């Protein structure tokens, strides 16, 4: 056991020093007997490699704040000198350790970031006995509740980062919720970045004001089927927008803890997102 713990520590140290990607670190920890949940929690505590691959980023902290129907949970990271504030919307597995890392990564790039746990009403993602239940719970949640919780997240960002412009970035399910915020006419958003998120059936973004950078993976045929109607609605609304499809990448290519992770596409997308925010938030 002592030797195993030593080997686990070696993997964690190599990850923290930027010698291993998250995906490779998770794989090696799995070979050492750690579950995916235990491995990602351990790596979150170590800090995440920065976009350049060297040094570390401090992960976000757990926070609680008021929501429309009770207390909400979330992951929060404050930038030292914020250029803007970001609402991060998680995937359909809920507020996993990956998103604690991601808010920290954005904070290191000078954007204070908050990821709302959209399973707060169910006790929070971390309380689930079966993580596989998260997609079903999110699918059963009333859309009005989800939007209300996200709007409360914007309220919290405005409280924590007063006078800053607010942007949003969402992934998979969260990308779809990003489109839904635009559909709902959330005018406090200055910039929006949906990563491979399905657009609404009949999108109407005429009440939105955000500059939209929509990201897709070339191999993500299911979500890409909604790309044309999303673009048509963006044009009709007269919004500033850009759509970029990353060659060779599939669905969820940005998540470095998942099997579809594409390192090159993820790094290029991250830099493109920062460039978009520099133009429309800073």
Plain-language structure description:
Strands 3-4-6-5-7-8-9-10 form an eight-stranded mixed sheet, with helices on both faces. The chain is built from ten helices and ten strands. With 282 residues, the protein is an alpha/beta fold. It has helices spanning 2-16, 22-31, 36-46, 97-108, 134-140, 143-160, 173-183, 221-224, 227-237, 263-280; strands at 48-49, 56-57, 61-67, 70-77, 84-89, 111-116, 166-171, 189-195, 211-217, 241-246. Helix 1 (2-16) packs antiparallel against helix 2 (22-31).
Q: Determine the structural class based on helices, strands and strand pairing.
A: alpha/beta
**Shape field:** globular
The unreliable regions are 50-55
* Order of the strands making up the biggest sheet: 3-4-6-5-7-8-9-10
* Count of DSSP-assigned helices: 10
Strand content: 15-25%
Classify the oligomer. single chain
SSE ordering: HHHEEEEEHEHHEHEEHHEH
- Averaging pLDDT over every residue, what do you get? 91
Q: State the end-to-end CA separation.
A: 50 Å
Number of strands: 10
Spatial extent as radius of gyration: 18 Å
- How would you characterize the largest beta sheet? 8 strands, mixed
The helix fraction, in percent, is 40-55%
